[in-house]
Amino acid sequence: MTNSHGHDLDARTRRLLRTLIAQYLVDGEPVGSRTLSRSSGLDVSPATIRNIMADLEDAGLVSSPHTSAGRVPTPRGLRLFVDSLIELQPLPPDEMVRLQRELPSEPTGSTIDLLGNVSSLLSAMTRFAGVVTVPRQADFPLRHIDFVSLPEARVLVILVFTDNQVQNRIVQLDKALDSQELEQAANYLNSHFAGLRVDDIRAHLLVELREAGSELNRLLASTVELATASFAPQTGGNDVLVSGQTNLMAYSELANLQRLRELFDAFQQKNELLQLMEVCARAPGVRLFIGEESGFTALDGCSVVTASYGAQGRVLGAVGVIGPTRMAYERVIPVVQAAAGLLSDALNRAVTTL
């Protein structure tokens, strides 16, 4: 998160703006000058505060609803608050214990199970929608490969990855292979390529196949086709898991029927949401989009808080929450950061256990 025109404000104005936004985030109501005078701890008159508020309104940082003399922060004001006025606190110990209990460093299930837990836990802890992108299976090292003969020169390829996921592919060959040839192919590939990612295996195979005297060509002349087909690139994009969408119906600022319909359509279609999360994954640390900053109309009334996760120095995706722009950022940001860190720890442990 980068600083954004916060240094243009003097210390008194910054304090008043921070006080206004903090009060608004708690109760969702416009904040009046008298309330600010009491809450800010500054020895200034309500008239002086009104003048400062007028300046902040001219700067586009606050606005005044027609029905009230008080003011509320604009998305631009919230952005300034998050970038330069917020005072982030460490995650409370009880919440960290809850995360560690629900996301153990040595998970027993598959990656999908773990990611589903993260999404659900983020939703439960924030009362917003929890979102997690699913990495490509090829991002995880291969643990084991097996072949099963099928009728009509087809072979079932069973790929077992280090995150405990199993992927099955059916390969059509020009001619059938017997069980001994399939076993020989599996033994060779397991002894040479276990522990590598599919993209790396494919690159190694291409190099070996170009070398006429390579061990692969010599031992597996009849199964070269099988070896290359087993690791062919797979079509289909990534996915994103969403939990707790119905939580968003509880927030009055999102309770417009048309807005909810657009939001839920975005969750169901996933395309735009996945694009946004992939942008977040490419940047280290926390990413935050407030209102229209996401670029997606369905999320105009929402804030999206994300953090990237990964394993062995590779970014695999992003975790985050989607909620109203009026959220307790100082609490939500540490929750998302901690969840991303624990997820990375768990995946690191999984992929190094060959």
Structure explained in plain terms:
46% of the residues lie in helices and 18% in strands. It has 3 domains: 6-85, Winged helix-like DNA-binding domain superfamily/Winged helix DNA-binding domain (Arc Repressor Mutant, subunit A, Orthogonal Bundle), CATH 1.10.10; 93-135 and 238-351, 2-Layer Sandwich (Beta-Lactamase), CATH 3.30.450.40; 139-230, Heat-inducible transcription repressor hrca homolog, domain 3 (Enolase-like, domain 1, 2-Layer Sandwich). The longest helix is centred in the C-terminal third of the chain and has 23 residues, at 329-351. It contains 13 helices and 10 strands. A hairpin with a 4-residue loop joins strand 5 (154-161) and strand 6 (166-172). Helix 2 packs across helix 3 (46-58) and helix 6 (111-126) packs antiparallel against helix 13 (329-351). The chain has a 5-stranded antiparallel beta sheet with strand order 7-3-10-9-8, sandwiched between helices. Strands 4-5-6 form a 3-stranded antiparallel beta sheet, with helices on one face. It is elongated, with a radius of gyration of 27 Å.
